[in-house]
Protein backbone atom coordinates (compact mmCIF):
# COMPACT_ATOMS: atom_id res chain seq x y z
CA UNK A 1 0.00 0.00 0.00
CA UNK A 2 1.26 3.49 -0.76
CA UNK A 3 2.69 5.60 2.02
CA UNK A 4 0.85 8.62 3.36
CA UNK A 5 1.75 11.70 1.36
CA UNK A 6 2.61 13.87 4.36
CA UNK A 7 3.88 11.37 6.96
CA UNK A 8 7.60 10.93 7.50
CA UNK A 9 10.11 9.36 9.89
CA UNK A 10 12.31 11.54 12.07
CA UNK A 11 14.44 11.24 15.21
CA UNK A 12 12.53 11.46 18.47
CA UNK A 13 12.48 14.92 20.04
CA UNK A 14 12.05 15.53 23.77
CA UNK A 15 10.08 16.95 25.46
CA UNK A 16 8.01 17.62 22.33
CA UNK A 17 7.20 13.97 21.60
CA UNK A 18 6.59 12.74 25.15
CA UNK A 19 2.77 13.05 25.10
CA UNK A 20 2.56 11.26 21.74
CA UNK A 21 4.91 8.49 22.87
CA UNK A 22 2.77 7.94 25.96
CA UNK A 23 -0.41 7.86 23.88
CA UNK A 24 0.98 5.32 21.39
CA UNK A 25 2.18 3.08 24.21
CA UNK A 26 -1.14 3.22 26.02
CA UNK A 27 -3.13 2.41 22.88
CA UNK A 28 -0.92 -0.46 21.72
CA UNK A 29 0.34 -2.09 24.95
CA UNK A 30 -1.11 -5.31 26.33
CA UNK A 31 -4.07 -5.22 28.70
CA UNK A 32 -1.91 -6.24 31.65
CA UNK A 33 0.03 -2.97 31.38
CA UNK A 34 -3.01 -0.70 31.17
CA UNK A 35 -3.01 -0.01 34.90
CA UNK A 36 -1.03 2.24 37.17
CA UNK A 37 1.81 2.32 37.99
CA UNK A 38 2.62 0.14 34.97
CA UNK A 39 1.46 2.82 32.56
CA UNK A 40 3.62 5.48 34.12
CA UNK A 41 6.90 3.72 34.77
CA UNK A 42 7.15 0.88 32.26
CA UNK A 43 6.36 2.80 29.09
CA UNK A 44 8.73 4.14 26.47
CA UNK A 45 10.34 6.88 28.57
CA UNK A 46 13.80 5.34 29.14
CA UNK A 47 14.77 4.85 25.50
CA UNK A 48 14.82 8.46 24.24
CA UNK A 49 16.49 9.50 27.49
CA UNK A 50 19.22 6.86 27.44
CA UNK A 51 19.63 6.02 23.74
CA UNK A 52 18.22 8.86 21.67
CA UNK A 53 20.35 8.21 18.57
CA UNK A 54 18.46 4.97 17.92
CA UNK A 55 14.92 6.21 18.59
CA UNK A 56 12.59 7.40 15.84
CA UNK A 57 8.96 8.42 15.43
CA UNK A 58 6.49 8.33 12.57
CA UNK A 59 5.32 11.92 12.20
CA UNK A 60 1.92 12.30 10.46
CA UNK A 61 3.03 15.62 9.03
CA UNK A 62 0.02 17.54 10.31
CA UNK A 63 1.39 18.87 13.58
CA UNK A 64 -0.05 16.08 15.74
CA UNK A 65 3.36 14.88 16.94
CA UNK A 66 3.69 11.15 16.26
CA UNK A 67 1.57 8.14 15.33
CA UNK A 68 4.23 5.46 15.75
CA UNK A 69 7.68 4.85 17.14
CA UNK A 70 10.64 2.53 17.05
CA UNK A 71 12.74 2.69 20.21
CA UNK A 72 16.01 0.87 20.58
CA UNK A 73 19.45 0.66 22.11
CA UNK A 74 22.58 -0.60 20.36
CA UNK A 75 24.00 -1.97 23.61
CA UNK A 76 21.63 -3.72 26.02
CA UNK A 77 24.31 -4.19 28.67
CA UNK A 78 25.10 -0.48 28.76
CA UNK A 79 21.39 0.30 28.66
CA UNK A 80 20.78 -1.82 31.77
CA UNK A 81 23.56 0.00 33.60
CA UNK A 82 22.26 3.41 32.53
CA UNK A 83 18.73 2.35 33.50
CA UNK A 84 19.88 1.75 37.06
CA UNK A 85 22.23 4.72 37.36
CA UNK A 86 20.41 7.40 35.35
CA UNK A 87 16.75 6.52 34.80
CA UNK A 88 15.48 4.95 38.02
CA UNK A 89 16.79 7.81 40.23
CA UNK A 90 14.70 10.23 38.16
CA UNK A 91 11.41 8.47 38.97
CA UNK A 92 8.96 9.18 41.76
CA UNK A 93 9.97 6.57 44.32
CA UNK A 94 6.36 6.24 45.51
CA UNK A 95 5.44 4.72 42.13
CA UNK A 96 8.09 2.02 42.21
CA UNK A 97 7.26 -1.49 43.43
CA UNK A 98 9.74 -2.72 45.96
CA UNK A 99 12.33 -4.95 44.26
CA UNK A 100 12.24 -8.64 45.15
CA UNK A 101 15.50 -9.69 43.54
CA UNK A 102 15.69 -13.00 45.40
CA UNK A 103 12.13 -14.01 44.58
CA UNK A 104 11.24 -14.41 48.25
CA UNK A 105 7.77 -12.95 47.81
CA UNK A 106 5.11 -14.65 45.72
CA UNK A 107 3.64 -12.05 43.39
CA UNK A 108 0.84 -13.13 41.06
CA UNK A 109 0.59 -9.83 39.22
CA UNK A 110 2.78 -10.21 36.11
CA UNK A 111 3.26 -6.46 35.47
CA UNK A 112 4.37 -5.99 39.07
CA UNK A 113 6.84 -8.85 38.69
CA UNK A 114 8.25 -7.21 35.58
CA UNK A 115 8.45 -3.81 37.21
CA UNK A 116 10.23 -5.28 40.22
CA UNK A 117 12.84 -6.72 37.89
CA UNK A 118 13.15 -3.61 35.73
CA UNK A 119 13.73 -1.32 38.65
CA UNK A 120 15.52 -3.74 40.97
CA UNK A 121 17.43 -6.06 38.64
CA UNK A 122 17.20 -4.86 35.00
CA UNK A 123 19.68 -7.45 33.76
CA UNK A 124 17.19 -10.22 34.54
CA UNK A 125 14.37 -8.29 32.88
CA UNK A 126 16.46 -7.61 29.77
CA UNK A 127 17.14 -11.29 28.99
CA UNK A 128 20.74 -11.55 30.17
CA UNK A 129 20.04 -15.09 31.33
CA UNK A 130 19.47 -16.41 27.80
CA UNK A 131 22.76 -17.87 26.51
CA UNK A 132 24.45 -15.54 24.07
CA UNK A 133 21.41 -13.38 23.33
CA UNK A 134 22.75 -9.97 24.36
CA UNK A 135 26.30 -10.87 23.33
CA UNK A 136 25.53 -12.02 19.76
CA UNK A 137 22.63 -9.58 19.26
CA UNK A 138 23.45 -6.72 21.66
CA UNK A 139 20.76 -4.30 20.52
CA UNK A 140 17.05 -4.60 21.21
CA UNK A 141 13.99 -2.76 19.97
CA UNK A 142 10.32 -1.94 20.49
CA UNK A 143 8.05 -0.84 17.66
CA UNK A 144 4.43 0.34 17.90
CA UNK A 145 2.18 2.12 15.38
CA UNK A 146 -1.32 3.44 15.95
CA UNK A 147 -4.07 1.52 14.10
CA UNK A 148 -4.67 4.53 11.83
CA UNK A 149 -1.25 4.04 10.23
CA UNK A 150 -0.85 0.27 10.34
CA UNK A 151 -0.76 -1.76 7.14
CA UNK A 152 0.72 1.09 5.12
CA UNK A 153 4.36 0.02 4.95
CA UNK A 154 5.55 2.19 7.80
CA UNK A 155 6.64 -0.73 9.96
CA UNK A 156 9.17 -1.78 7.34
CA UNK A 157 10.34 1.81 6.90
CA UNK A 158 10.85 2.22 10.65
CA UNK A 159 12.81 -1.03 10.85
CA UNK A 160 14.99 -0.01 7.87
CA UNK A 161 15.65 3.39 9.44
CA UNK A 162 16.64 1.79 12.72
CA UNK A 163 18.94 -0.76 11.08
CA UNK A 164 20.95 2.05 9.50
CA UNK A 165 21.19 3.86 12.84
CA UNK A 166 22.29 0.70 14.67
CA UNK A 167 24.88 0.00 11.98
CA UNK A 168 26.25 3.52 12.42
CA UNK A 169 26.58 2.80 16.15
CA UNK A 170 28.60 -0.35 15.43
CA UNK A 171 25.84 -2.70 16.60
CA UNK A 172 26.33 -6.17 15.10
CA UNK A 173 22.86 -7.55 15.84
CA UNK A 174 19.48 -6.83 17.40
CA UNK A 175 16.80 -8.85 19.17
CA UNK A 176 13.17 -8.42 20.17
CA UNK A 177 10.45 -10.30 22.01
CA UNK A 178 6.92 -10.73 20.68
CA UNK A 179 3.82 -12.42 22.07
CA UNK A 180 3.72 -16.02 20.91
CA UNK A 181 0.15 -15.57 19.67
CA UNK A 182 1.15 -12.85 17.22
CA UNK A 183 1.45 -14.92 14.05
CA UNK A 184 0.95 -11.87 11.87
CA UNK A 185 3.82 -10.10 13.61
CA UNK A 186 6.01 -13.19 13.22
CA UNK A 187 5.41 -13.18 9.47
CA UNK A 188 6.18 -9.46 9.33
CA UNK A 189 9.50 -9.80 11.13
CA UNK A 190 10.50 -12.88 9.15
CA UNK A 191 10.06 -10.96 5.89
CA UNK A 192 12.43 -8.34 7.28
CA UNK A 193 15.19 -10.84 7.96
CA UNK A 194 14.54 -11.74 11.60
CA UNK A 195 14.77 -15.36 12.68
CA UNK A 196 14.02 -17.24 15.87
CA UNK A 197 16.60 -17.10 18.60
CA UNK A 198 18.22 -20.52 18.08
CA UNK A 199 17.89 -21.85 21.63
CA UNK A 200 15.20 -23.94 23.28
CA UNK A 201 13.79 -21.93 26.19
CA UNK A 202 10.87 -24.06 27.40
CA UNK A 203 12.57 -27.42 27.82
CA UNK A 204 11.30 -28.58 24.45
CA UNK A 205 7.63 -28.49 25.47
CA UNK A 206 6.54 -26.44 22.45
CA UNK A 207 8.94 -28.03 20.00
CA UNK A 208 9.99 -24.51 18.98
CA UNK A 209 13.21 -22.56 19.36
CA UNK A 210 13.11 -19.09 20.84
CA UNK A 211 9.81 -19.63 22.64
CA UNK A 212 9.48 -19.25 26.39
CA UNK A 213 7.23 -21.47 28.45
CA UNK A 214 4.59 -20.77 31.06
CA UNK A 215 1.78 -18.24 30.99
CA UNK A 216 1.99 -15.58 28.29
CA UNK A 217 4.82 -17.13 26.25
CA UNK A 218 7.12 -14.91 24.21
CA UNK A 219 9.03 -15.65 21.01
CA UNK A 220 12.47 -14.06 20.76
CA UNK A 221 13.67 -13.06 17.30
CA UNK A 222 17.15 -11.98 16.22
CA UNK A 223 18.71 -10.25 13.23
CA UNK A 224 22.38 -9.82 12.28
CA UNK A 225 23.52 -6.38 11.18
CA UNK A 226 26.54 -6.49 8.84
CA UNK A 227 28.92 -3.71 9.83
Question: What is the CATH H-level superfamily?
Answer: Gcn5-related N-acetyltransferase (GNAT)
Based on the structure, what is the oligomeric state of the protein chains? single chain
Apparent shape? globular
DSSP strand tally? 7
Radius of gyration, whole Å: 17 Å
The overall average pLDDT, rounded, is: 85
Structural class: alpha+beta
Tell me the helix content. Answer: 25-40%
Assess the beta-strand content as a share of residues. 15-25%
CATH structural class: Alpha Beta
Question: What would you note in describing this structure?
Answer:
With 227 residues, this protein is α+β, with helices and mostly antiparallel strands. It has a single domain (8-171), classed as Aminopeptidase. It is 33% helix and 17% strand. It has 9 helices and 7 strands, in the order E-H-H-H-E-E-H-H-H-H-E-H-E-H-E-E. A 7-stranded mixed β-sheet has the order 1-2-3-4-5-7-6, sandwiched between helices. Strand 4, helix 8 (154-168) and strand 5 form a beta-alpha-beta unit. The protein is globular, with a radius of gyration of 17 Å. The two termini are 31 Å apart. Mean pLDDT is 85; it is low at 103-108.
Short description:
With about 230 residues, the protein is of the alpha+beta class. It is about 35% helix and about 15% strand. The chain has helices spanning about 20-30, 40, 45-50, 75-85, 110-120, 120-125, 135, 155-170, 185-190; strands spanning about 10, 55-60, 70-75, 140-145, 175-180, 195, 220-225.
Compile the SSE list and pairings.
Blueprint (H helix, E strand, L loop, with lengths): L7 E4 L6 H11 L9 H4 L4 H5 L4 E5 L8 E6 L2 H12 L22 H11 L1 H4 L7 H4 L2 E7 L8 H15 L4 E7 L3 H9 L3 E2 L21 E7 L3
Parallel strand pairs: 4-5
Antiparallel strand pairs: 1-2, 2-3, 3-4, 5-7, 6-7
Protein name: N-acetyltransferase domain-containing protein
GO molecular function: acyltransferase activity, transferring groups other than amino-acyl groups; beta-N-acetylglucosaminidase activity
Amino acid sequence: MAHDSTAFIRPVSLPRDRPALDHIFRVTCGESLKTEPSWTISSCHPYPLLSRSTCFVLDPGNGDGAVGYILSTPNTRQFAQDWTEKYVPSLDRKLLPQPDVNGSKAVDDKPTQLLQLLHGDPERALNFSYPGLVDKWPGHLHIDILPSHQGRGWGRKLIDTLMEALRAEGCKGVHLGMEAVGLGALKFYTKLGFSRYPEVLDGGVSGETGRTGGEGPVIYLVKDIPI
